[in-house]
Design a protein that fits this description.
The protein is mainly β. It contains five helices and 33 strands. The chain folds into two domains: 302 residues, Thrombin, subunit H (Beta Barrel), CATH 2.40.10; 140 residues, Galactose-binding domain-like (Jelly Rolls, Sandwich), CATH 2.60.120. It is globular, with a radius of gyration of 24 Å.
Length: 454
Amino acid sequence: MPARMLFAECTGSVAILASLTAFAPQAQATGPRPEVVYGEDNRMDLFDSHVPGNWRKLARSTAVLMRSSDLTPDSTPESTISGQMNVHSENYGEAMALCPDERFREQPSAGFCSGFLVGPDILVTAGHCMDSQTRCETTSFVFDFGYLSANDDLSSVPESNVFRCKAIIAQELDRETKSDFAIVKLDRPVQGREPLKYRASGDTERGTNLLVIGHPSGLPTKVAADAQVRSSDTSDPFFVANLDTFGGNSGSAVFNADSGEVEGILVRGEMDFRFVDGCNKSYHCEKDGCRGEDVTRATVFAEYMEDDSRATETRSFKLDNLNIAIPDNDPAGISEVIYVDKSGEIASIGLRVKIEHGFPNDARVSLRHPDGTLVDLGSMGGMDTTKPADDTTVRPPVIAERTFGLDGVAVKALRSLRNRPALGAWTVVVKDPVAADEGVLKELELTLKTYARN
């Protein structure tokens, strides 16, 4: 099995776990809890007697993110009948070179992030866990990957519990504000699980009791309580808590322990381990020590979950066979006008751009509304930086096609054009501000979803 990537919630970095043979260990019973992370290690398996039924119910609406290639159909006759999928996992202790006394070290590690259900087919996770369409296309979301009893076999899961990513509805990973979230549309509605309730307005106050449910280090579901909000600056899109979380917890639902409502998404935190005497030990912190764990506020993603029941109409406007040269090292670029004769109020927008270019990341795209508002959509190569690295290497041209908005790459800035009139002349600007590689604009397609008139 190839090395698996585990997203570290502490820094957004990636830890490469060694290749190991897949296996199916049993759960470790919960024993003494040494001082680890923030105070005591409060992580518990679902079968733990300290986990009440209402927490187990919440856990049913949480999922682990796995590489789809780590899930394969079980070819045995018995499993074919029941529709099982083999889970290609690693031994947590061996993969992370853990010390002998580390908890859960014999359990399987199979995921790289966590997520939770907020609609029949809508799931929320951390933005750095779902940062591209490629990530969407190669990720599966698995529910019930946890121990309801100490003897459960998690070497396979029911296929009915496995879902794929259909589209990224919205995604944000802002280095300045530290906002970090993604909203994913699944390939089908999730049956038998209730979407979680989440805070849609108001502030999460300092001292609020918290509970986190997710998959630390890609392990089977863990519940960790006895945590509080340590600081909550309302000018920030996140608050800080003393949650017992590890890499793999990124995207976990952080609940108000008293109300059961989601207060936010676990996204960043303190370092997970320290190397001692030839092995890794969980990092120890006092309850009020270390940096704390950052949680993106639920109110940040809630604005993307607006329930607008108005009927919509969709229409596309296409310009093909353009073959227009994109000037190299030119900050002005080229502009193409798309005339929209469709009236109505904009619900959502999508722009498909196709170019031929030696280095697509050099090419940036902007969209101007008929009223003059200009929206920067980002790079054709997916590395959305306003200052592409200068590169003097000349490469042969390749075809690059990207859809911004709608069911393509979510662009927060496009939301600023919602509820504006669709009618008029829209302008697409494609520019290459970096020297060396040259390109050609091949096709443009603007898709507008507008609210239907009564």
